[in-house]
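FYI - complex with uracil, inputs then prediction.
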Amino acid sequence: MPSSETLYHIGFGRDDLGAPLPTLALLSGDPDRARHIAERYLTDVRKLSENRGLNSYVGRLPNGQAVLSATSGMGAPSLSIVVNELVQVGIRTIIRVGTCGSIQPHIKPGSVVITSAALCRQGAANDIAPIEYPAAADPFLTVTLAQAARAQGVEHYVGITASVDTFYEGQERTGSANPHLLRALRGVTEEYRRLNVLNYEMESGTLFKMGGVYGFAAGCVCGVIAQRTEGENVVLETKATAVENAIRVAVEAAALWLARQSA
Ligand code: URA
């Protein structure tokens, strides 16, 4: 149900969005990325809120279509709150613009992964749908993301993502403050690699289940910033390229998607 009141967490309401009303949100985990997208890729930008670091901006794509650049925060619980409120203000398409760790040797840092479906190991999602409920991206939006990547000349891979709740334990990182990795998680990365899972990230599974339940189109593109077949750390040298590639793909896909909707 659309709400004109200020939503508690995102800090704005439908009446703040102006005209034409945006129906698509580019959703970054990182508030600085949301601001960067707004400043670098949109025109006529207006800050809606920077409440709790959930930075949100409204602006226009180069072809004049209105979009939001918003922030999910890290992880599925935060994302679930933001997405619920974005839908309340009228958003009907959400493209997550994230980062991820590759678990396939041929998917290198700097490239992007477009998630077609997620292996969803996330507690927040279980509050929204049964555990067996498919965490599937909107198929048409996923194709649009792949077309955008091709148009932008960005190296990309489309497939299954492991979407988990923790960056360290859940992604089998042993070189952190917790030396006690649960038996159930030891070897999980190699198992997923053999199951043709492409990457790890922390939000798409819950986003996709919400899309299915609420009835909005959800997609996800992530820049590859770690290569887990080689190490645990983020590869800082190529991080900026990976993030910019994911943004370029998401922005182009948003333009294609909205143009097709209005055709
Ligand atoms: N985000 C993740 O969840 N994992 C990584 O390795 C990198 C980014």
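The mean pLDDT is 97. The first helix runs from residue 31 to 41.
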